[in-house]
Amino acid sequence: MTNDVVLALILTLFAGLAAGIGGLLVLFTKITNKKFLSFSLGLSAGVMIFVSLADIFPEARESLTGVFGDKFGYMAVIIGYFSGIIFIGLLDKITEQKLTVKTKDTKDPELMRIGIFTAIALAIHNFPDGVATFMSTLQEPSIGFAIAVAVFIHNIPEGIAVAIPIYYATDNKFRSFLWALFSGLVEPVGALLTYLVLMRFLNTTVLGVVLAVVAGMMVFISISELLPTAKKYDEGDISIYGFVFGMLIMAISLLLLGE
Known about the structure:
single chain; 9 helices; iron; ZIP; transmembrane helix; cell membrane; Zinc transporter ZupT
């Protein structure tokens, strides 16, 4: 393993750990603070919808239109996007039946399901980010470093989006932190898998389709789960303020990424 590969893996790990830092926010949160829960769920929805429509969807479209042309490429993005919505919608119905019974470890199955779905969607989204950071560092270390720093900032609110609902569902700060960390550590795992196995299989078409599917999944989770639950615990318009603030955070992070 060359020095360039080691540096690329280190930078990707650095970026991925930021989700865990976002998850650490739960250490300073009281389970009885429903206003904070409402604001945080709104923020999570703002983060996910904005990054899906302003970043992931356009990136998928750019990838697939470059391969198939404007018309058929855009058609492929639309099919992928709504396939993601259908997939996560069906998964939601299936898991809803299995997570409706309260257990000793889960006080609120609805919030637990939201947290798990958010973690899965963001983990899939973070896989290409890890690949991008890794490949950029191999090509030009200075560019890879800049991307890693920007992705690091970008991942912190995503970690918050995962950790908060799981914390309120379980009253377990360590468990919610681990779920947030998991969503970010997919990045270095993706980089390592790319180096060891996937380099010959990954191409523009595959990444474009994955991004389109993930965009649909994240929008569905936000509209179907995050926003309704945020309003459920809302007092006034706190969830709306969180939603707008979440979009603002992601807008700034995308500016730092130069997108």
